Amino acid sequence: MPELPEVETTRRGIAPMLHNRVPRQVVVRQVKLRWPVPVTALQGWCGAPIEQVWRRGKWLGLSSDHGHVLIHLGMSGCLRIVPADCPVQAHDHVDVVLDHGKVLRYTDPRRFGAWLFTATDPLHHPRLRHLGPEPLSAAFTSEWLARQCSRSRRAIKALIMDSRVVVGVGNIYATEALFRAGIHPARGANTLSKRAVSRLVAEIQAVLAAAIEQGGTTLQDFTRPDGHPGYFAQALQVYGRAGQPCPRCGTLLHQQQIAQRSSVFCPVCQPL
DNA sequence: CAAAGGTCCTGCTCGC
DNA sequence: TGCGAGCAGGACCTTT
User: Fold this and answer.
1) Is the pTM for the entire model greater than 0.90?
2) Mean pLDDT confidence for A22-37
3) Fewest 10 Å CB contacts: which of A10, A23, A109, A223?
């Protein structure tokens, strides 16, 4: 499910229900996520009101006087606020029971997600320490991306999906941004002109901002914490449309594996 | 059987 | 030959 827009949509959905609420208990039904869930630390975190519900890249943070819970949704993770008597389903791995009778429930069939805890500065945590700039912040400039491109021969798509270069850009939005910028996903990063890099920065920002505005992309089972779908799927121009005509020139869209991820592109609008 | 929205880790290759 | 950096591929897991 989640790239940056879906994580941000999740954050906005759950934050109002968590702010100033006191977690009373954390129930862990499945310890084996990406890393073992730190059950004891999560229980110790209970008892203090949640002051901040924040996001860094695709990580969500719940911060209180007792420390910081770090949550990653992986490929199939989902967070919702449910009533305390909501029946537990398969893959409902973690509950945070809150003082107002509701529960923050984490569901993740593939278990690529993570729940971590740190008592110290969460941005210094080993998993967050090396993250690159936020794509929608002033720190993500064409100068920055051009510098990263100049020292890499990797495919440009792999580069922009590298969280040390820029956070939050996954397969859907990398595919869309490259189409909008007219850049072939397999182009060597160091072969891009400065102009192409600027265009790419602008398109990454535009596509992410638009997707957040629309509440994220709902494919298969992504729904927002309020149960509504995201509406950005209808705005996708090439992702999931291999074999269909390019929306710009009508040529049939190609699909190929690039950096182990399926990539859709227009061979005419995005020449190699 | 292949593929699905993520990303960490291992081990290879290349250049100094 | 040895070392570090950069990179590709495998790994994790379930569902469709």
Assistant:
1) yes
2) 97
3) A109
The reply to whether the CB atom of residue A74 sits less than 7 A from any atom in nucleic acid chain B is yes
Assign residue A52 the CATH number of its domain. Answer: 3.20.190.10
Is the pLDDT confidence value at A39 over 90? yes
A213 carries an active-site annotation: no
Examine the residue annotation and report whether A83 is marked as an active-site residue of this protein.
no
Same domain as A210, residue A147: yes
Residues A240, A251, A168, A22: what is their CA dihedral angle, to the nearest 10 degrees?
A: -40
Residue A12 lies in a domain: yes
pLDDT 10s digits, A74-109:
999 999 999 999 999 999 999 999 999 999 999 999
Radius of gyration of chain A (CA): 20
Q: Which residue has the tokens 């984490």?
A: A106
Of the candidates A222, A207, A137, the one whose C-alpha atom is nearest the C-alpha of residue A170 is A207
On whether both A86 and A43 belong to a single domain, the answer is yes
The verdict on A167 and A101 lying in the same domain is no
